[in-house]
Amino acid sequence: MNPTRMTQSSLAAIVLTAFACLTLPALHAAPQPLIDEVETSPLNSNAILPKIISQTAALYPAALARTGTEAVVVSFTVTSDGKVENPKIISTPATQLEAPAKKAVLAWKFQPGSRLGKPADFRLKAPVTFSVNGDGIEDAPAASRKVAAVYPYEQLVKNQTGWGEVAFVVDYSGRAILASSTGASDAAFSKSVIAMLEATEFSPAKKDKRTVMAPSTNRENFRPDADLDFTARHVLSELRKPKPAIFNLADLDDRPKAVSQRSAVYPRSMKSDGLTGQAEIEFIVDRDGRVLFPRIVSSSHEDFGWAAATAVAQWKFNPPMRNGQRVDVRMTVPVMFDAQKLASSD
């Protein structure tokens, strides 16, 4: 690197401090290289590189905090008016760090560089280094409308207990993003917890009276018969039999009508793939019109299945009727996921 372009004192490595759980250990990054040019120019001897004026901290995904993941190298253009454009990932130890690294770089401000005494565009590269620091958060994120986790059907009918723990980040609008399992007795339990968190609405965290993104963790314990009323216990006991005595739609006076149907949340893990997907969910509508014990029959991707089951579990129907009497009935529905709708809402 030409010494006329930059010195150690003029521009140190950019080290970004991000938020993470207070219980997580601090990460100590090795010294990082200076910002440097990606593209060379025959006019370099007369070039003055842009200088950093302000930088925005990159959010460290809490799901990665236990791995010691630290840095992403990003290339970007600093325009002749000091704006950052077109960030691209050169290298990353984890794909979950790419989006927050790009977002942080786009918010940086530079004093424009010049060639031959005139403002010019420069293509630069720099490491975005993440460290763990949860200090200063006054109000931690809290669920304002929590959704219940769906009990994995196979484990439910086999009377198996379990648990799942998930680390995630609550963004500025109160959505759970970057959710990742940090442990589970069975992978199905953590999948259920992730779907639950992504369907839950949160109140964002506050720091210095400002809304900020903040990490959190959630552990759910699953016990087959916990908090079930008499009707739900009866239905579950039938489902555990080789031939459950539960009616089908053809046995009813009429098909139950839905009175409340919350839309399924597109899985955040599938967002970058941009896929349109589907899932088929079987469930019981009890004699009060509640949905009980949804089961994933099929899905184009398992994350679509868990998101669909979580949505269906919140639905409400008119009570199923047979010969004028309320009964329990088994139903199956398809649930569709449209990636274009997700893109327009994000």
TrEMBL record:
Residues 1-29 form the signal peptide. The keyword Cell membrane applies. InterPro entries: TonB-dependent_transducer, TonB/TolA_C, TonB_C. It is a single-pass membrane protein. One of its GO terms (cellular component) is plasma membrane. Its main location: membrane. Pfam families: TonB_C (PF03544). Residues 44-139, 251-346 form the TonB C-terminal domain. One of its GO terms (biological process) is protein transport. Gene3D superfamilies: 3.30.1150.10. Keywords: Cell inner membrane, Cell membrane, Membrane, Protein transport, Signal, Transmembrane, Transmembrane helix, Transport. It is found in: Cell inner membrane. SUPFAM superfamilies: TolA/TonB C-terminal domain. Belongs to the TonB family. NCBIfam families: tonB_Cterm (TIGR01352). This is TonB C-terminal domain-containing protein. It comes from Nibricoccus aquaticus.
